[in-house]
Amino acid sequence: MSARAVEALRAGVKALSSNRKRALEVLRLATDDDAGMADAWLARIAAGDQSVSTLAGLSAAAARLEHDLRTMGYRAQDLDVAFDVGYVRWLVADQTSARLAYAARLLTVREFAQTNNLLEGLGCTDRRVLYTRAQLMNDTQRWPDLLSAVAGCEAWQGLDSEILRRAASLLEAKAAANLGLFDRAVGAVGRATESALPNGDAIMRDGLHLRALIARCQGDEDTARQTLADVVARWPEYQLAKDALADPTYSLHIVDHASIESRSDRWDPATGTTPAQRQAAEHASAARQQLAEAEKTLSKMVALDEVKRQVATLKASTAARILRQRKGIPTPSTSNHMLMVGPPGVGKTETARAVAKIFCGLGILPLADVYETSKDRLAGQYVGQIETQTREFLADALGGTVFFDEFGELIHGGYAGGDPVGQAIIGVLVPWMENNRDKAVVIAAGYPRACQRVLESNRGLQGRFSTVIEFTSYPPDKLIEIAEAIIEHNHSTVEAGALHEVLMAPFTGFYTEQHHTEDGDTIRTIDVLNNGRFVRNIVEAAERVRDLRVMSESGLDGSDLSDENINVDISVEKLVLLTREDVSTGLQQALPPGLRA
């Protein structure tokens, strides 16, 4: 502090009543000479300098408030510097109010982060600080934080306690109402609108307006309009009430905690997301995951290049149809039901699961679930029971994908008047497929000509399946590839050349041997053995043979394996290697007795 700054303060305060412009010029000399002279900053504000920087100077120097004014016979409140925080006006009279004046100025210029930092430095015991924090949260629509700031405000005591209690109660009511907590909001409005003033004030006016909007949200339009009319009559220039009275859709914007916490900018309500937006984002994320999982499933499947191409075409066609619809291009609706024709064990079920995920990922279906069934699973003791079981099964599958295996077995000949079980199932299935074509997908699987026979048995079933994906028996080289893939997946290894030496000849025989069904379908012996599933059975049997051999050779039969030091010298290679003999024995164990050597 310098003598020159003190003299400048003295001269500036003296000039406030006669020449404010001159006072401001002199007072600037004081703050330039001594930036910590709080009283000079306060006097500058009294002279009309309401700049943010001047309020910031006062706040920074607040600890010295009245230090110099007292030597001149003044108090801070004698300069009559007032500031507004919402409904409340205070004089700068102490350190806290000096800093709150800066907070109020920051609020008006929407520097909310700075306001928050300043208030956090002032603690949370002074009611004026709590109310100012509540106003910050009101201006930024952080309703839960507002409720925390004014908790217990109905019991606030002290200077200007009545107006502060009412103002805080009104802010509480606004926060509670915008969170949909109407009972709490109504109680707080009641406290806010209690006033001894004969004509009311802004708190009463806004409180009654809020009460009307709460009534509207609760479906009580008569009370809402009556209250709004009363507000307009008492305060004819209050535009918000006039707008709400003229527009019955004018209402509160109810938000939830999650929407507020979702903001990318804590202080900007526009950066938050709505529940619908979050749900859409979750759906989009889940859709991406479903598509990725479908691609992963298909990529791991061996010897199905043509099937993968057909699925890729299906996916592209479906996506293109969706895009055309979004562009407003007339797009005829199409059925998504499909046939997967081919022998067992060639990946139809896994492909169906991948297709279900694709449909879910593209938004065609809400669920990626696959509901598997067959004629045997739906059959009952009498026709009525079959129909009931079929309806119940299909009802559970709504929104997902039905995988109907062995579809070609649905209708058998030899019955007078037709197959009653199959016809009962079809009688329920056909209308369900048509009525729910946009809510579910049916994938029917079986031998091609057998499936065609079933389709021809019911004219309503014809044309229901818009896509046909063809599967074929695995030739010997592809069966070997599948064996290699399974061995790798199981973290096993196999002696070089063992698979070809042991399996190629029998696989060739199984592939070549064939017969024809009454429907005309070609059935190879490898189909009877279930193609890929047969290969998996061979590998798993070979691994069991290997494990028995390794345990026996290592002398571990009957040993206590809880001792971690037993035979630690067994190599990893020995534990995972499949020999020619293992594979040969595994083949024999996997074969039905009638086909074993």
From TrEMBL:
Major location (coarse): cytoplasm
Residue stretches in coiled coil: 277-304
Pfam families in UniProt: AAA, AAA_lid_6, T7SS_EccA1_N
Keywords from the named record: ATP-binding, Coiled coil, Cytoplasm, Nucleotide-binding
Highest taxon of source: Bacteria
NCBIfam families linked to this entry: T7SS_EccA
The protein, known as: ESX-1 secretion system protein EccA1
Organism: Mycobacterium riyadhense
Organism ancestry: Bacteria, Bacillati, Actinomycetota, Actinomycetes, Mycobacteriales
